[in-house]
Amino acid sequence: MNHSQIVGFIWGVADLIRDTFKRGKYQDVILPLTVLRRIDCVLKPTKEKVLKRNADLKGKLENPHDQLCKASGYAFYNTSRYDFEKLLADAPNIAHNLRNYISGFNSNMREVLEKFDFDNTINKLAEAGLLFKVLERFKNVDLHPDGVDNPTMGTIFEELIRKFNEALNENPGEHFTPRDVVHLMVDLLLAGDERRIRKAGAVLTVYDPCCGSGGMLMIAKEHILLGRRVNGGDVIQPAISPKADVHLFGQEVNPETWAICKSDLFLKDPTGRDAENIAFGSTLSNDRHPNRRFNYLIANPPYGKDWKRDEDDVRAEYERGDAGRFGVSLPRISDGQLLFLQHMLSHVIPKGEEGSRVAIIMNGSPLFTGDAGSGESEIRRWVLENDWLEALVSLPEQLFYNTGIATYVWVLTNRKTPERRGKVLLVDASSFWTQMRKSLGDKRREVPPERAAEILRLLRDFREGEHCKIFPTTHFGYRKITVERPLRLNFQATPERMTRLEEQSAFQNLAISKKKDAKVRAKQESGGRDRQEEIRALLRTLPTVLFRDCAEFLKALGDAEKRSGIKLTATLRKAVSAALAERDEAAEICRDEEGNPEPDSDLRDTESVPLTESVDAFFEREVKPHVPDAWIDTGARDHKDGKVGKVGYEINFNRYFYKYQPPRPLGEIEAEIRAIEQEIMQMLGDITESNGREVK
Questions:
Q1: Which is the most buried residue in 148, 352, 568, 621, by most CB within 10 A?
Q2: 519: buried, middle or exposed (CB in 10 Å: 19+, 13-18, 0-12)?
Q3: Mean of pLDDT over the chain
Q4: How many DSSP H helices and E strands does the chain contain?
Q5: SS3 state at 217
Q6: Cβ contact 27:160 at 8 Å
Q7: Residue 233 confidence (pLDDT)
Q8: Where are the alpha helices (DSSP H) in 104-178?
Q9: 628-662 confidence digits (pLDDT tens)
Q10: Coil, strand or helix: which one is 323?
Q11: What burial class does residue 432 get, using C-beta atoms within 10 Å of its C-beta: 0-12 exposed, 13-18 middle, 19+ buried?
């Protein structure tokens, strides 16, 4: 059977359990038993040998682990006398015997199976009288690697996960990435490194911080050692270096997908080395490979997922500054994609030693979300000012199972070739797709090998063209300057304006006391109300003329204070001025005590000045001709270089590949509308005629 038939066969188990398990709980039965059945098929040829060896060593060797692994041929084994066939031979005790069978695995494989929390599922199946039927169903499918190779099995697991997450209405993109996208990402990751990989005795490390079911890691290793095949058949891409020593590392937070990844790697590598390097837990809050650095790093972090769960640990890491993984800055709490990017860059090998390459796929948000000085902008600034971003590849929409949005592959390295230094290649591959015969969730398109080869060629060629643009890293930077305009107010002591004083907090607070003692509080509030009435009386003595000069009004107010003997505090004087003022373009500019014009906060604006241009030159050309009285707020400076204006970085990818499409001529649109109207009238006429015949 091919993988689709096997998935259908296994999924048929749902027919047995649908009355006992809700649709969202099918995975509690199907996933662990799929893993267990595959392991059972793998161990079957050496089962008797292991049992015999275990009996021979009993009481003679304190820890027979290595000997039993040697007997099984893998880094795991089972010392129980049961397998699927023997379990079914003793139906009355099947639940007890199944637990005995599971406990017969050595510790590393038991850890994998325990992540499925399968013991509770055994109880539920046994109570419903379904355990025998379900195990019998699985016994009848052969999942040995000789019949179902590892790539096919990986696809089976991912297809099952996709179905489960559709049932739960969850995000399957958190667990795995479509294989066509993974193959492309691996090609981009390894591009240009063939000579390094082919070095005699090359030892290479590949790391995925959110490895899901392990697809990216396994395909990266296959590309290096085995090449790429189409559906396990013809080789379409030769191996880079079959003799390279490739070590895989990863971490995954979801227990079920972690278990699938780890069990799959145990089967792929008899030494168990790669499987032992797959850690469990949240990468953001608990890095399980803290002191490791890797040659190649690849990931598909969850899109738009918040990091509230990890917030305390992430912020603590941020407080460590350069010593931590997130010392540059933190993105908004609602999206942690750029945290994974920072984490990966903290694990690259320093350039002086060997350097690393990174491929990470994200949605459009990390490219442009966040203004100058924001966490996202600061992270982009860090990446670009260190000249780590080699290329950005825009992929087609509708590639993923759970979303049709556009995605982008970031290719980064700390050892760019000389011709690429200080530059970024943008590749628009949004049209490089073919339609799938059958949609899988939201996935309606795929990137076939021939189109992936075109994208890879564009990356290698590093030339501008229809689908490629090359820009210096500074092209994406700008300075956000604050443009001020003077405050112009008129003042008039009219009854209408004087009533606004009641809304001023400084005036209201006069009659509010926070004293706990009721008598003291009442006395203070009474005195405050008297003070309020004095100020109202003061305002009634002001001239009712319209003042268009702030200085003249303040002088008149001061004269009124002297006449009445009422002294206003600076806060109250400001409240009175605010109440009696209105904006007036014909008024004189309001100035502070030093004679400098006061800025009008309502007219305050900002401008983004390209980093490659002088702020003053830009201001004189773009602002001054339109607002001659404007000036730059020189107090708003960048926190790093101290110059005027906050530095920001953004990559508005679509802007660089936008092609203007002129609207259709009005006559053509009008003709189309008339044709549609005629078609509708014809349809209505047919309906009327048909109804008339029915009446007759």
A1: 148
A2: exposed
A3: 91
A4: 29, 19
A5: helix
A6: yes
A7: 61
A8: 107-114, 118-127, 131-139, 150-168
A9: 999 999 999 999 999 999 999 999 998 999 887 88
A10: helix
A11: buried
Q: What φ, ψ does residue 440 adopt, rounded to 5°?
A: -120, 100
Sign of the alpha-carbon torsion through 157, 158, 163, 167: positive
Show the CA angle centred on residue 220, arms to residues 219 and 225, nearest 5°. 95
Residue 447 has phi, psi (to 5 degrees) of -105, 100
Q: To which H or E segment does residue 179 belong?
A: helix 179-190
CA–CA distance, 224 with 196 (Å, rounded to integer): 11
Burial label, 292 (beta-carbon count in 10 A; 0-12, 13-18, 19+):
middle
Q: Is the dihedral of CA 498, 500, 503, 504 positive or negative?
A: negative
Tracing tokens 């161990």 back to the chain, one arrives at: 43
Question: pTM of the entire structure?
Answer: 0.87
Of 256, 270, 208, residue with least CA distance to 35: 256
Rounded Cα distance between 368 and 377, Å, is 8
Phi-psi region of 382 (alpha: psi -120 to 50; beta: other; left: phi over 0): alpha
Enter the DSSP assignment of 403: -
| pLDDT at position 695 | 56
From its phi and psi, is residue 642 left (phi > 0), alpha (psi between -120 and 50) or beta? left
| pLDDT for residue 676 | 92
For 438, the enclosing helix (H) or strand (E) is strand 434-440
**Sequential DSSP letters for 366-397:** HHH-S-TTSHHHHHHHHHHHTT-EEEEEEPPS
Backbone angles phi, psi at 359, to 5 degrees: -130, 125
Element (H, E) at 349: none
pLDDT greater than 60 at residue 147? yes
DSSP labels, 658-673: ----PPPPHHHHHHHH
- Contacts for 372 with CB less than 8 Å, ≥ 6 apart: 478, 479, 480, 608, 645, 646, 647, 648
pLDDT of residue 232: 55
CA angle 5/11/14 to nearest 5° reads 150
Contact 368, 651 (CB under 8 A): yes
| Whether the predicted pLDDT of 12 surpasses 60 | yes
Question: Could you report how far apart the first and last alpha carbons of the chain are, in Å?
Answer: 60
Q: CA-CA distance, 243 to 203, in Å (whole number)?
A: 10
What pLDDT band is residue 9 in, cutting at 50, 70 and 90?
confident
pLDDT tens digits, 550-589: 999 999 999 999 998 989 999 999 999 999 999 999 999 9
Furthest-apart CA atoms within the chain: distance in Å: 113
The pLDDT of 6-35, averaged and rounded, is 83
168 pLDDT tier (thresholds 50, 70, 90): low
